[in-house]
Amino acid sequence: MTVPYQLLYWPGLQGRGEFVRLALEETGVPYVDVARQKGGMPKLMASLDGDQFEHPSFAPPVLLAGELLIGQTANILMYLGAKHKLAPRSEAGRLWANQLQLTVADIVNEAHDVHHPISTNLYYEDQKKEAKARAKDFREQRIPKYLNYFEGVVRGGYAVGSRLSYVDLSLFQLIEGLRYAFPKTMARLEPSYPNLIALHDKVAARPNIATYLQSKRRIPFNETGIFRHYPELDK
User: What biological process terms from GO does the record include (predicted)?
Assistant: First the structure.
């Protein structure tokens, strides 16, 4: 593909766009992180406008690939996986990968709702009491439930088949995000999930990913993204 992919996502945070960035970085295909460029925000907003696009996205991330405008993280990854050998060729394999990615999306949503349990229109400080209650359940019940599931899935070394897929990249990002937001919880839980941690380390060591993680293209975790570290939520 001679024309770079255009990734449309909010500047300054990893968020859901990071799952797409990891796939693009692993494949080495050229792409532009549009909203991080001068004048990029109007292009991002245009992708959400039904007057400008026949199939607008509800929210970022959005991938512009030639004439295609693709929204939703799992949908974008399903497309990139098929195009760049990050997913199985068989229909059953592609569906399995998409199923796992949607499950990753479920826990990512729950991680976000820990610090915004009432409304995304309120500041964290406006819902701290509710956030503490939500965090306790997330730490004690939900994180282990999801990690138990994924630990079994990656028993063979990878999530899908015998080679790397976009799901593995997403599981790496999930572990990274949970470590940032809940370092004490993850330090306690990780010994129970050797397969997942081995996969995380294997992804981190891949040449393109390792280079990306050390580059300025990798936005640091911060308290405007999905994974946020509030010490009072990690007791």
Answer: glutathione metabolic process
Residues 6+ apart with CB under 8 A from 120: none
The answer, yes or no, to whether residue 159 has pLDDT greater than 60, is yes
Residue type, 20: V
Alpha-helical regions (H) of the chain: 17-27, 41-46, 73-83, 91-115, 128-137, 143-153, 166-181, 183-189, 194-204, 207-213
Q: pTM for the complete prediction?
A: 0.96
Averaged pLDDT, 132-146: 98
Task: Give how far the C-alpha of residue 88 lies from the chain's centroid of Cα atoms, to the nearest Å.
Answer: 20
Total count of residues recorded for the chain: 235
| 8 neighbors 44 (Cβ within 8 angstroms) | yes
Cβ atoms of residues 201 and 193 within 8 Å = no
* pLDDT digits 0-9 by tens, 164-186: 999 999 999 999 999 999 999 99
Contact 53, 47 (CB under 8 A): yes
**Domain 91-206 top-level CATH class:** mainly alpha
Sheet with 5-8, edge to edge strand ranges: 31-33, 5-8, 62-65, 68-71
Question: Per DSSP, what are the bridge partners of residue 31?
Answer: 5
pLDDT per residue as tens digits for the range 107-120: 999 999 999 999 99
Q: Please give the Cα distance from 178 to 77 (Å, whole number).
A: 21
d(CA 25, CA 84): 11
Return the structure tokens found at 128: 């701290």
Q: What is the pLDDT of residues 44-68, one digit of tens each?
A: 999 999 888 889 999 999 999 999 9
